[in-house]
Structure formats: structure tokens, C-alpha cells
């Protein structure tokens, strides 16, 4: 049971400061990027930077890079289930279509379910 | 076709199969029941046989040999159920898709639910409460909306069911195949008198239906006709008839280009939103000057206006609506529709 | 039973033994205890109380449904009754019952620990649970709530004027109780196992509770925040879910069922764990396919998060989403089937006896099979259009919840009662109660399948007269079922005072919990046990009847 | 910088159980087990928190998708400068928190107090800006959902955006307030010498919590303030 794991792993001061500086730079960057017109890529850039910043915090400030496997599994689970919640809910809203019945339902238009036409089901 | 299949016994606990969908659903239902009965029987028999055969004969008895498991057996009872549910899934999805896909020539009937009654409106004009008269063997597409909470329009004999949502149109279609009375219910709990929110569908022959139509205390106008009146009354004409706003002719079911570069299909939901929240989707090339009609116009009046816009459409999908609007007193021709000359 | 003779040989002074029940006395020693076994008792009494509250509501509903027009209560009262029944049973009885009563009592003992990882947190969970319970009792007394336990918007946010706020608050608070319990169990199972208790040696009850805790931790926070949104919308009239204000009522259903469907597995998984214990103990067999049964618990827990949309096939959800959710729902049938087959196979060439817990277990397998298979009907999207929101659904989930979860709970309670109290109940009465429960249950919910096929919608206070016969059958069954539940309350209470001493291992079962005294000492074991054998190692040698420590 | 302080130190269970034998709660075998349990418990709790915010984030994402233009208008009513400033403030507090945990690991009592106080101050600055510069400003502009006077384009959905803004940042601020309470408690406990001799689970767990709250903000900032760009 009692695996003799390291109780603490004190990080070097320099690394903390480096991470801190990077985080501040990234904050400036994400704010700056917002003033450049990238179209839909603005959102992508903002989220990518946020994910990068969050990873830094998790890995260094929260010591995830020295944690046992179990903790990493917990982190991955949390992220994965968050993605399930957002992603799978979105499958409804993104495919619901603003029309009352999606166009591919109309029998007079070619549809993805075309092969079903005329079948008894 | 399928409901004559001799495989399906006539069992009284299912409602009559009164729509084109019903035999398809029932075939799938009997298949699933068959599978369930088989597996239930299998498990019960095994439980009984094992329990009796291997009953404990003395208090300290232990099994002769311990069995840890058996991989081929495990795989068998993993894969066989898997195959069965895949079959059920595909079959179920097929039934569902055809259940959700209305034929192009379906006649529209408008159903407005409110706590705790059903207001039903035919394109020809008649309105009814808690009753729906339809002709047999003709596809009917119900366009459902609610004035308050979520309801659910369910006709067990048609094996048809759809939630009725506020501020949105959902649809449900069926083709009744048998003349008769069939109950419909509100299936989604909607408050105090949920259980009183029910009525009946009267499926009639075409002649009977015509007779019923003529016997109705007819509203002077069809829905499209009412809509045309509202077009004047609410002053829609001052913009939509003069070019300040997008014209209504040919609008229904067409692609509309919006200000942000997106396009939407001008369907019932879109028109409804445009009336109630004009600023939500601005048509490209027009100014956002339209006032909201939220709170000033009833659900039924919105449906009338939609019916009117439908009657002005030129796409084949709205044929039924156009035909229905023929008897209307209001102008339906292109020239009059834009209202420039009036 | 076995130790009764031995006890007689010893002098009275020697038989007096300090255990967790008599180590301390007084109300404070219970209300401030951090002993997981005592906390299990706190939960036992509080959940039993809520079971009675929910049961009374159900009884009144069934009584009212004897007449098509109802004769007992007004429709609105009926609506309040089914809301109270649903909310109390789901949040205040079924969800906590097996995990917090049997789980709290057994997890540390089964893995050979002195207590759970965070005993104070464990007690805090109970207090949070009681706060939530009190909040809901207030709701009932203040006039009730009539939204249904599903709190569908915009009915709950804009249309009813009953006590939605306090009801939502109760659900919100109870969520945290479950989260903390789940957290505690996860850490306990990971970090507190005795030497030698490897993952492949864990009793399957532990596996099941581990999967349950996993769902607790990931699903409960979502319902908590959803209830916050409902409360905010109700108070401030902002349109999160009310379409009149720009929101989308279907979004609420997504959030609710993201929690709601895994919740159903929270209710059934622990009882499945109990089953694995009962079936092995009463057939003295190792479980057939240990790995498959353990993994299927986890399979169920994970897939359960991907199926929620099957509650919304006809709710205006996108057709694509519906088809996706249908496919996922089908997959959940597989691990459930694996479990049932393995339990059945465990009886093969076993040494099967039929004490009361085993009767409950056999009842469970049968009823759960029916409940599970009828679930396949509802996952089949084309059939769901016909059966959704009818009595078929009611019957289906009561087969799972009552026929499954409560049968499992009762079986487990009878199985471990001698361990919890040190006393034996009269087995004859217990078998009779199990039989009555089984008969009453089937008579109550069997006819409801037919009612569903006929098209009777659920949550109907009054109904067309042609459904009356089946409703009367159902109500008659409910009264028999009530007898089946009242009997254990009486003879179990009786056994505490008058029952014979049970001895450490009355069933000659395997498992660490049976190797310590009954009732167990304060810290469960005299010394930390070392595990050297697989779970359910009913070997060729006779099962040990006496604890290691004696 | 002394080289000793920079050295990476591994404290094992043997190290902690020497001279001043620490008492562990009765359910644990030793301090290692206790530490592992406490740490895992905290992480599991944070997983719960992710899903707690997740319910809101999912709703937010869906409405942002449905009413993109309205959300963009709403977003442009927020003050990016204060938002960015607050992000920087929180990042600074995360650094000081990490340093406090490090001081605890190295058993430097005075440094613990120093960094905890700094963290607390940064936390309070964040809350000050949030309350008085942002929320109050938006309230006066008539953008707060209850006092909503904005009547421009997409008004109902802009209100929806503002609601999410207030709830998301409000829930975050609530976590910050709790965090500040924890800081004060920890400072008092440190001054009383509760964390001497390598017993610092509470500080470490408070650190995890604080960093988590920081991460939430790292996402909230672009999600709320930077919709559709500011060009």
C-alpha cells in the first residue's frame, strides 16, 4: 500500500519566475491578438493561448509534472468530461438547423438518407 | 401494406393501427418484444434450473470445483447482445427518420397548445378546440407551438408524438389509414390540469371531411386571408409593400442573405422570429428599423401571417398552402401582394 | 448462529465485548461521531425516514388512481404528490441508500481499513444531506412543489407558483453531500487498502461503489449549477431557459439529463455490487468472470455520460443528435447483459442456498433483466416515439429502481444486518417478506407496461375510464408491496433487541468484513489484516466461521 | 540566491517521521498515506469544480454559438483593460502562492507568511477591481441583467450575455472570496506554527485551489472579453 512516494518536490525559484513571465507575456499577447482581424481564428487563437497558459499553471504551479499517475488521470478525466458536456450538447444545437425540418428531409431534394426513399421503413 | 402481415397477431393491448407509421412501429415493437421475452425466459429458466439442481444439500457443502470464468462464453454473451442492439438501433433509426420526414405534399395543420387546451387551426379556416378533423389517407403535417410551457402532442393510434415548445415550431406528420375516432393526449407534464389536456382525432373520408368543412361555422376567411388582413391592419404593408422592408412574395422557403453574410432558410421559425425579434436577423440590404411585435400579436395571428406569406411563395413546397389560400378574399397575386398599387 | 454455542461456554464477563455500538453512549456520541459505521446508521435512519415520506406519497397516488376521475385529491395535489415522490425517492432515498448506508459501513471493512480517508468530511456529508432533506421537508410542509422531479423549464421557472426555489435549493445542497461522499470513497478505495488488497482482489461491491463515486463526482456538480440557474431565473427573471426572454428550454433538459441519466446508474450500480456479493456468498462460488463484472461497472459508468439525449428524442432535439444518443444508449445494454449472464453463470455448479438475502438477489436478477430489456425499447429511437412519456417508461424505470435498486438494498441489508447489529433476524419472516415484495412488485408495475402500450401518459391525475382495470391491479399490487416493505421494518427492529447473536460469519461467507467480530470493533480490525487470497475464494477448505483475531 | 534554497529536495516518509514524530489521524498508517490521500482528495474536488463551472460554460458556449452577434456586442461593452489587468494580478497571485507552497516544502516559516500575505493582497486587488471598476461600471451603464436599460440591437440576447458575464465572474469571485478566507486562515495557522516540520498539506491543497481559480479566470478572460476581436 504505502508506496514510498516523494512527499514534496520543491521547484526551482527560477522556473517559477520564468513561468510567471511567460504567463504575463501570454496575457499581453492574447489581448493584442484581439485587436488584429483574424476572422474566426481570433477565437481559436484566444483559446489556444488560454489552454497554453492553463497548462503552464497545471504543470508547474500545481506540480502536475511531478504528480503520481492517478492525479494525471483525474485531470484528464475532468477535462474529458467537460468536453463531453460541451461537445455532445453542441451536437444537438449545431445540427438542429434553424429550419423547422432540415432540408435533407424534403423528399424532393437529394438527401443523405436518399437510399431510404421508397423503402417500406 | 405491412399491417396485413399475418405475422402480427391482433392483440388488444395495443391501440388500433390507424396510421401509415403504425404498422412499421408495431413490427419493430413485436420484434423487440420477441427478443425480450426470449432473453427473460432464458435467464429465468437458467436461474431456476441452476438454483434447484445445485441447491445446497448440507450446511457445510462447498462446490466441488471452482470455475473462474470462461472467455469464449464471455465473448459470446458480449457479442450476441451487441449484434442484436446494432440491428435494433439501425431499424429504429430507419423508422424514426421516416417518421420525421414529412412528404412534400403534406397539408399543414396548425396546433397551438396552451395550459390546458389545444387550439387547432386548418389552413382552410376552421378552428377547433381539443379536436382535430382530418381526411383519411392524406398526409397531414402538424405545425406545433405552445403559448406557455412545453406540451406534447401524442396520438397513440398513429404511433406519433412530438413535444410542443414555446417560441418555436416543431412538426409532426402522419397519414391516417382508418376512419374513426382516436384519442390524443398531452404527454409532457405541463402543470395543474395536464391530465385534462386531451382530445380526439376524427379521421373521416374525403367526402365526410368536405361535408364537415362546409358544415363548420366558417370563419369568413382562410388563414392566409386572415393573414392578409393583418398585413394591412398592423401596417406591415407600409414597409414590406414599399421596398423599405424585404418583400414577402417568394419569400417562404427561400434562402435569405443576412447582414453578417450568413444565409438562412425563411421557414416558419425564421418568420416567427423576424416578427417578434426583428433585430435578431437583419436581411442584407435593409435597415434594422422594424419594431418588435412581441406582446402585440397572438400566436394565432403569427400563424395567419405565416400562412399568408406561404400563400405568396412560389416554391413547390407551399403548393398546399397556396391552394388553400385561393378562397381568400385577400389578394394573393404577385402584384397585389407587394401592395404597391393599393 | 454458529457462535451461539461457543458464547454459552464463556462466562458473562468474558462475553462483554467493546464494539462500535457500545463504545460510547449518548446522543452526542452519535451526532458527532466520525466512525464510518455509526455514520452509516445515521444515514440508515434518515434515508428510511425519507423512504417512508416518498412511499406515503406513492401510496396516496395509487389510491387516487383507483378511480378514473380520482376521489382522494385534487389534480394539483396529485401533481405535488408525484413531484414529492420522485424527488424524495431519487435524491433522498435511492441515491444515498446503498452508497451511504451499506457503502459507508462496508467499504473500509472490505478493504481492511480502519475508517474512510476523511471521517470528518464523511460526517459533514451527512449534515449537508440533512440540511438538504430539511429544506425539502420545508418545501413539502410549506405547500409542496408541482414541477415533477425533472423541474422542466419554463414550467418551473416562469409558470408554477409553488415552492420551486426551496425544492431546487434542496436538490442543489444534496448534490454536495453526494459529491463529498463520492470523493471520500474514491480516495478511500485508492489509498486505504490493506496490504495485499490489490485491485484484482477487491470485492465487486467495491468496484461498483467506485464506479458510482466516479459518477457522483462528475455528474452532481452539473445538476447543482443547473439548479442555481433555475433559482436565478426564477428570482431575477432572466431568460436562461425561458424562450420568452431569449433562452432555450431544451438546454435545461440537456443539462438536467447530463446529470439525470448517470444518476440512474448511481442508483442501480451499488445494488449490482451487492448482487455480486450475495450471489457468490449463497452459492459459495467465485464470481464467474470477475474481470468482466468489474469492468462492466466501469463501462456502465462511462457510457452513462453519453446517452442522456435519449430522454429527449421527441423534445425538439436535433434528429442527428437523437440518432447519436440512440446508438450510445444501445451500448449501455451490453455491460448490463454481461453482469446478468455472469451472475447466472455463478450459480452453475454452486452450492445454492435460499436464505432471505438470496431470495432478494434472485428477485433482483429477474426483475433487473426485465427492466433492462424494456430499456432497450426506449433506446430504440423509432419505438421511443410511441412509448415516450407513457406508463411504459414509468414501469421500466420502476423495474430498475424498485425491482433492481431497492431489491438489492433490501438483500444487502438482510445480508449484512448480522454484521451491523450482531443480531440475527427471523429468517422465515424475512423470506416471506421477500416473496411478498416480489409478488406485490410485479402486480404493481407489470400492468403499467400494458398501460403504456395502450397509450396512457404518465403524470396523469385523471384518466380515461378504459384504463381503470389495469390501474386497479396496479394499486392493489402497491398495497401488497407496502406490506412487503413494512414487514422488514418490524422484524429487523425486533431483532435488535430479541434476535439471537449472529456470530462473526453467520453465512460462512468470504470477505474481510466477515473476518472481524459482529458487531465490529471500533477500528474494524484488531490488527491490520493482510490479504493473501482472491475475492470470493471459496476453496476446497471449509469457510472459516470464526474471526482471525479470536 | 543561496544554492541551498535552489536545491531540489525530496522529502520522503522517513524524513518526516524523524525527531518530532508527527501524529497522523488514526485512520492513516503514516504521513505518506495521509499526504497522498489529501492530495488526491483535493484533485478529485477540483475535477468536481471543473464540471460545476462546466454546466455554465456549456450553456454559455451554446448561446454564444446561437446568438453570436449579440454576444459580440455584449462583449464589446466590457472593459478589456481592466480584464487584462485582473488577469495579470491573478497570475502574480499564482506566483506568490506557488512560492508560499515552496516555502512550506522547505520549511521556511517566515517565507510562508510573507508569500501568503502577498497572495491575499493580490486576491483583494482582483476583487476590488472586479467589484468597483467593472461590475459597478457596467451596472451604472445599465448592463446588469436586473437593471437592464440597454435597448440597442439584439437587446434580449445582449442581456443574456450580460447575465452569463455576471454569473460566471460572480461564481469566480465567490471562489476568490473563499480563497481569501482560506489565505487568512492559513496565515494565522502558520503564525501559530501549525505547519512546522514538513506538515503542509493544507497549504499545498490551498495552493491547488488557488491555481485552479486562476485557471478558470485564464479561460473566462478570452471567453467573455475577447469575443470576435476588438479591431
SS-derived structural category of chain D: mainly alpha
Q: List low-confidence stretches of chain D.
A: 1-21
Q: Biggest chain pair contact, residues each?
A: B-C, 85 and 92 residues
Q: How many β strands of chain A by DSSP?
A: 1
User: Radius of gyration of chain A over alpha carbons?
Assistant: 24 Å
> Structural class given helices, strands, pairing of chain A?
mainly alpha
The end-to-end span of chain A amounts to 59 Å
User: What form of chain A results from the Cα inertia axes?
Assistant: flat
Distance between the termini of chain D: 45 Å
Radius of gyration of CA atoms of chain D, rounded to a whole number: 21 Å
Written description of the protein model:
- The complex is a heterotetramer of chains A (121), B (342), C (550) and D (231).
- Chain A has two domains: 62 residues; 31 residues.
- Helices cover 57% and strands 2% of the residues of chain A.
- Chain A has three helices and one strand.
- Chain A is flat and about 50 Å long.
- The termini of chain A are far apart.
- Chain B has two domains: 171 residues, Immunoglobulin-like, CATH 2.60.40; 103 residues, Cytochrome c-like domain (Cytochrome Bc1 Complex, Chain D, domain 2), CATH 1.10.760.
- With 550 residues, chain C is mainly alpha-helical.
- Chain C has a single domain, classed as Cytochrome c oxidase-like, subunit I domain (Cytochrome C Oxidase, Chain A, Up-down Bundle), CATH 1.20.210.
- In chain C, α11 packs antiparallel against α12, α12 runs antiparallel to α13 and α13 runs parallel beside α16.
- The longest helix of chain C has 37 residues.
- Chain C is globular.
- The chains are: A mainly alpha (121), B alpha+beta (342), C mainly alpha (550), D mainly alpha (231).
- Chains in contact: A-B, A-C, A-D, B-C, B-D, C-D.
- At the A-C interface, α3 of A face α10 and α12 of C.
- β1 of chain A pairs antiparallel with β1 of chain D, so a sheet runs across the interface.
